[in-house]
From TrEMBL:
Leader peptide range in chain numbering: 1-26
Superkingdom, natural source: Eukaryota
Name of the molecule in the record: Ionotropic glutamate receptor C-terminal domain-containing protein
A Pfam family: Lig_chan
GO molecular function, one term: ligand-gated monoatomic ion channel activity
Protein's membrane topology: Multi-pass membrane protein
Transmembrane segments: 588-607, 619-640, 652-672, 801-822
Record has Isomerase as a keyword: no
Keyword Ion transport included in the entry's annotation: yes
Domain Ionotropic glutamate receptor C-terminal, first and last residues per copy: 468-784
InterPro entries: ANF_lig-bd_rcpt (IPR001828), Glu/Gly-bd (IPR019594), GPCR_3 (IPR000337), Ionotropic_Glu_rcpt (IPR015683), Iontro_rcpt_C (IPR001320), Peripla_BP_I (IPR028082)
Length: 825
């Protein structure tokens, strides 16, 4: 009983709506004298002006197509084609009732419509049983593309499969990688959301959340603001009809989750007048993607048919005809759907006449609609499958493999922008099935949310967000000072590497910060754990990224590349070395110098002993010693008691002078270097000495409850973190590093795990690193030096360094010997 009462209530509403519309549309010529009819199903919804234009325009162009066939004298069995229409109000049961009522009363050969996918999913299988083709002008559910499941169905509007592909190309154009989808819970919404989700996943894009809108309850299932504010993505795709789109947007505006925080992409047109003007700035930057006809993108279309249809519309219903540029695109799809059926019927009956058939069409009539049959169904469907003509929406063609039109699928992207009268839609991009979006001939710049010319990003932005930031006093990353102003007021001032970095991030990202200082008795692991417990939003400072910490918190990109170092005390000063004066030359070089002196002395003895008066009247040992003394004096710049008398002796003396010049200069330079540079000898050479037990582990100092302690427990080394570089340069001048760095790691900003704003923070840190600003901070706070540099070392000269000098001296001695032998001969 309740079912019949509800059904009667629905019929009453339909009659009231029909009477209301017929007051405006009562002058179309009647088609009751026809023998065959096309049934148009339109989803008129009372008090829904957004949808009314679609229905009124589609209904008018449906009738115009039928009347145009009458003007062209297209007849079936000598009679003109007529029309029947039903208003479904978007309800499946009403669409079923209208269909059954029409086929029970009239010879219906095909259905144009229904408008909604949820209606089509029922009407198409029903009409398959009745042997009736169905061509929809607005049902876009991707499931309807299956020709096996819906063999009697075609559509002139592009499938949502194509729109999903266009969305992927749009995301690629603006480097978006994630989004949320809000969809209405019917075939259109669910089917569209599913195909987008599948295609995005296949394209390495992420749908982070799918939010359902209940069209019966007219509300989101859950809290819209909570969903969006907790989402890592800021791109929202709204997949709903015009009525639901307006209601969802109003909810979003009330929750302040539209612009400028979010970029919305809607798929159904809205009327701006349905929103309060105080929300207009929030709507600026919103995008609308919708299917359009060929004329919008400069593709071919049938102007003759279009003008003829407009003339008929203006003749019979001029008060509803807008400017030709304002006709709803779905109305043109409606005309082409109707015209495809008319042309197919014409071809079908032409073939029957040529075959001398007595009757073109026949029906099995019944008062019970489920027993109705159209007998020429298969022949008409076969002709529809190969239909191909230039329609008012572009080229229209079908095939046996799919229910979608095989060409003529176009989309435009419109942008909500401010205008003198409030808001307007401006066409900014167009998609013509070529696989990419292009700028239209009349170019309009995209105005993004917040009246920005910079394209939106899909990540959550920190701009305007207030953060509780914990810092730890640790030089040079964070230093705390009490500053007293002229009025005697004392305030706490923070300086250091971390503070300067925080200021750079605040300037770049636009967030607000409240700084909180870590208690002195709090360990570093407790420090990090406070973020996971929600005590603080983030921590910025000298916090090492470790695997145990990463299990409970997140980390940003590295703000400082770190490693552990082994630190020891420097030797106070060089010890007493009685033979330090010998260090400028190596032992081998000293022996070579001594040998050279003796060798040269022997040559002087041989060359000078007979002709040099100073050597005569002496014993041979005395002559030999005097000769060696002569060479020593010339090599080291000491005066000698006699001069050479022979040519060979003089040449050899010249060689000694050359040798002396280089040796004395080299010795003096190296000795000065060794005497001025303190050379330190360390207890250990590096971390391996600790591992090998050269230094007991109880002699190694570490920072308790820190990353160093974790490392000690794992591999038993010793060391300190990267901040020692500054300490050694500025404070502990008596300490120094030994060995190479080890256990390389990094400092990073501690964030909650899977924090929404981590991508935005990471991008900012990387940009600071690429611009060199982080290097500037390192130079300022970590690499500045006030301690004297103690890293210089001296080296002893060896034989190789002076091998050329001695080779020259050997040649000179050989020449001296030859000269002596020549003179003696």
């Amino acid at each position: 009983m309740l079912f019949f009462l509800k059904f009667e209530y629905l019929l009453l509403n339909i009659l009231l709506v029909q009477l209301n519309i017929d007051n405006v549309m009562s002058i179309w010529p009647s088609s009751n004298s026809s023998d065959i009819y096309l049934l148009g199903l339109f989803g008129y919804i009372p008090d829904a002006s957004n949808n009314n234009n679609l229905v009124i325009h589609s209904r008018a162009m449906f009738k115009a197509a039928v009347l145009l066939s009458n003007q062209y004298n297209i007849t079936i069995d000598g009679k003109l084609i007529g029309w029947k229409e039903g208003l479904t109000r978007g309800e499946v049961i009403v669409a079923l009732n209208e269909t059954c009522l029409s086929v029970s009363e009239s010879n219906i050969v095909s259905i144009v419509g229904p408008e909604f996918s949820r209606e089509t999913l029922l009407i198409s299988p029903l009409c398959e049983k009745l042997n009736l083709p169905v061509i929809s002008y607005s049902a876009t559910d991707p499931d309807l593309s299956d020709a096996t499941t819906y063999p009697n169905f075609y559509r002139t509007v592009p499938s949502d499969d194509i729109m999903a592909l266009a969305l992927v190309k749009l995301f690629n154009r603006f480097n978006w990688t994630s989004c949320l989808i809000i969809y209405q819970n019917d075939a259109f919404g669910s089917g569209g959301a599913k195909v987008i989700n599948d295609l995005f996943n296949a394209s390495n894009m992420k749908v982070v959340q799918m939010i359902m809108y209940d069209i019966a309850k007219k509300s989101i299932r859950g809290d819209l603001k909570t969903y969006l504010m907790n989402s890592p993505s800021r791109i929202v795709i709204l997949w709903a009809d015009s009525i639901s789109t307006s209601l969802i947007l109003q909810n979003a505006l009330d929750s302040n989750v539209v612009g400028p925080l979010f970029t919305w992409i809607i798929t159904s047109e809205i009327l701006f007048k349905s929103f309060n003007e105080r929300y207009y700035q929030n709507l600026v930057g919103m995008l609308l993607i919708e299917p359009v006809v060929a004329s919008v993108v400069g593709a071919p279309y049938n102007t003759e048919l279009l003008n003829a249809a407009y003339n008929i519309w203006q003749t019979y219903e001029n008060e509803t005809f807008p400017a030709s540029t304002d006709v709803d695109y779905y109305a043109l799809f409606s005309f082409d759907a109707t015209w495809a059926l008319i042309k197919s019927l014409e071809e079908l009956c032409s073939s029957k006449i040529n075959n001398s058939s007595s009757s073109c069409l026949s029906f099995n009539k019944s008062s019970f609609c489920f027993n109705f049959r159209f007998n020429q169904y298969d022949s008409l469907l076969s002709i529809l499958a190969r239909t191909n003509f230039l329609g008012v929406s572009g080229f229209v063609g079908f095939s046996n493999n799919t229910t979608d039109r095989i060409n003529g699928s176009y989309y435009i992207l419109q942008n909500v922008q401010a205008s003198a009268n409030g808001l307007k839609f401006a066409s900014v991009l167009e998609y013509v099935g070529s696989g990419y979006w292009r700028v239209p001939i009349t170019e309009n710049s995209i105005i993004w949310p917040g009246n920005s010319l910079t394209p939106s990003v899909n990540r959550a932005l920190l701009r305007g967000v207030s953060l509780r930031i914990e810092i730890a006093e640790l030089s040079p990353f964070t230093m705390v000072q009490n500053v007293t102003d002229d009025n005697g007021q004392s305030t706490i001032q923070y300086t250091g590497y971390a503070i300067d970095l925080l200021q750079l991030l605040m300037d770049q990202l636009g967030f607000k910060a409240t700084l909180l200082l870590k208690p002195s008795d709090q360990t570093y692991n407790e420090f990090v754990r406070a973020v996971s417990e929600g005590v603080y939003d983030i921590i910025i400072g000298a916090i090492t990224v470790t695997s145990p910490r990463r299990e409970i918190v997140g980390f940003s990109s590295a703000i400082y590349d770190n490693s552990l170092r082994t630190i020891v005390r420097q030797v106070n000063g060089p010890g007493i070395d009685l033979f330090a004066f010998l260090k400028p030359f190596s032992r081998g070089l000293w022996i070579l110098v001594l040998g050279t002196c003796i060798y040269a002395g022997i040559l002087i003895f041989l060359i000078e002993r007979r002709k040099n008066e100073d050597l005569q009247n002496r014993s041979i040992p005395s002559q030999l010693i005097m000769s060696i003394w002569y060479c020593f004096g010339n090599m080291f710049g000491y005066g000698i008691e006699f001069n050479t008398r022979t040519a060979g002796g003089r040449l050899l003396t010249a060689g000694l002078y050359i040798l002396s010049l280089i040796l004395v200069a080299s010795y003096t330079a190296n000795l000065a270097s060794d005497l001025t540079i303190a050379r330190s000898q360390f207890v250990i050479s590096g971390i391996n000495d600790v591992k090998n037990g050269k230094v007991p582990i109880n002699r190694v100092g570490i920072l308790a409850d820190s990353a160093i302690e974790n490392y000690i427990k794992a591999v038993m080394p010793a060391g300190n973190e990267g901040l020692v570089e500054n300490a050694l340069n500025t404070i502990y001048c008596n300490l120094t590093e030994v060995g190479v760095s080890f256990a390389e790691s990094s400092y990073a900003i501690v964030t909650p795990k899977e924090w929404l704003y981590t991508p935005d923070l990471d991008v900012s840190i990387l940009s600071l690193r690429e611009s060199g600003k982080i290097d500037d901070l390192k130079q300022k706070w970590l690499q500045a030096r006030t301690c004297p540099d103690s890293t210089l070392t001296s080296t002893s000269l060896d034989i190789k360094a002076l091998s050329g000098l001695f080779a020259i001296f050997v040649v000179i001695t050989a020449l001296s010997l030859l000269l002596f032998l020549w003179t003696e001969r």
